[in-house]
Amino acid sequence: MRLAARRSDVLVVPSTAMAERVTRIAPRLDGRIVVRAHPVSAEPPPRLPREPAILCRVLFAPYKRMAERIGALLRAVGELDDGSVTILITADRTEVPPPVASHPRVRLVGRLPHARLRELRARSRAVYFPTGLESFGYPLAEARVSGQPVIALDTAQNREIAGPALCGYDPRDPDSLRRAVARALTAQVTPDPAPFDPGRYFDWLLGEPR
User: CA–CA separation, 76 vs 158, rounded Å?
Assistant: First the structure.
């Protein structure tokens, strides 16, 4: 990978944070790095009534500390509403700890095909994307494209990708997460597909840089 990078005229990365990481590891590449957000198709979402649900579509892995982060979300939601809000998680019982799997607010929907995932997202009021280390973060971009609030860490990278769709929080501050959830459950976000336009991305990538 490093040899290919040294031989390249241009290195395309999907976020400023990734550009900074590459530069930190290989300072000589600094002048050849271009930040271009990954393309995201702006498919019109199905017109479905929004339900009091938060969709969490994250692949579970130990380094993501998902059990801890879903626990924090459940506590925040529990302090805000009367029990009507459901947390939809794209996992099955073998992937989550028993306390999460058996929680009355949790609905495990498993791994879903794209069409079914789009439908669930269209029915949900917000998306929860709590991971801390991502090169890009498609749920952030998709939320911005479709005009849906996304609850995620308040970082420079997440602000860059999610834009006005971000309801950011500080993981060290439970009150911050509670405020972010409250905002996400009521926010109206205007769809913003322009930063992720596939045509513009591939015209630039395969044609003459503009």
Answer: 21
pLDDT by residue (tens digit) across 171-206? Answer: 989 899 999 999 999 999 999 999 999 999 999 888
Query: CA-CA distance, 86 to 34, in Å (whole number)?
Result: 40
0.85 cut: is pTM over it?
Answer: yes
Which segments of the chain are extended strands (E)? 11-13, 33-35, 51-56, 86-89, 106-108, 124-129, 150-153, 166-169
Here the tokens at position 25 are 């590891």
DSSP 44: P
Tell which residue, 159, 209, 152, has the closest CA to residue 184. 152
Element spanning 160, H or E: helix 156-162
Q: Which residues of 117-139 are buried (b: 16+ CB within 10 A; e: fewer)?
A: bbebbbbbbbbbbbbeebebbbb
Token digits of residue 16 = 């400023």
Q: Which residue has the tokens 């989550």?
A: 96
Please name which of 188, 148, 142, 187 lies closest in space to residue 43, comparing C-alpha atoms.
142
